[in-house]
Design brief:
The protein has 11 helices and no strands. By secondary structure, the protein is mostly helical. The longest helix is centred in the middle third of the chain and has 22 residues.
């Protein structure tokens, strides 16, 4: 059980879920978060699963999730732009916030927001960078969503599974 939370209609409204997503999830019998996330994945609603998972996580979890996600695909960017270390620095700034969420570290992560968003928009295949941009920069939803569907379907599915499973492991880790 994850934090004794149930994914109810009331909860989904409170986190501004779209009507279609709320209606879709309302059909599920098991309302436990991990079960709902896994069911969304089974129903090929990867973007909804990712959207939900980051809204259930606490700060450290979603920054960890974002960094993990971005690190899965950063090589795409670095191969294209071998001299540009801005996306990696954005990830490193976000990683500093995981264990030491001081205002200085948060400011460093925020200052890297533009580069994280750029990275997400153009080079973060698989929907993973959506989380990276959200956590590190809090601002790249639509661009990263677009990037999510630009990669090969089989590779995208494998990467999404790896990332979602990492997110689930964060949610179910005993604190």
């Amino acid at each position: 059980m994850t934090r004794n939370l149930k994914i109810t209609d009331k909860f989904l409204v409170s986190i501004y879920a779209c009507a279609e997503g709320k209606d879709w999830v309302s059909k599920y019998e098991d309302k436990e978060p991990v079960a709902v996330i896994r069911r969304l994945v089974a129903d090929d609603k990867w973007d909804w699963a990712n959207w939900l998972i980051v809204r259930i996580m606490d700060y450290k979890e979603y920054v960890s999730y974002a960094c993990f996600s971005a690190l899965q695909v950063i090589d795409i960017y670095e191969r294209q732009y071998p001299g540009d270390d801005r996306p990696r620095k954005a990830i490193e700034a976000a990683q500093k916030c995981i264990e030491n969420p001081t205002q200085d570290n948060k400011d460093a992560a925020d200052s890297a927001a533009y580069f994280a968003a750029y990275f997400a928009a153009y080079f973060a295949a698989y929907f993973a960078a959506y989380s990276a941009a959200r956590s590190a920069a809090y601002s790249a939803d639509s661009a990263a969503y677009f990037a999510a569907y630009s990669a090969d379907s089989a590779a995208r599915s494998a990467m999404k599974t790896k990332i979602i499973e990492y997110g689930i492991s964060l949610l179910t880790k005993t604190k």
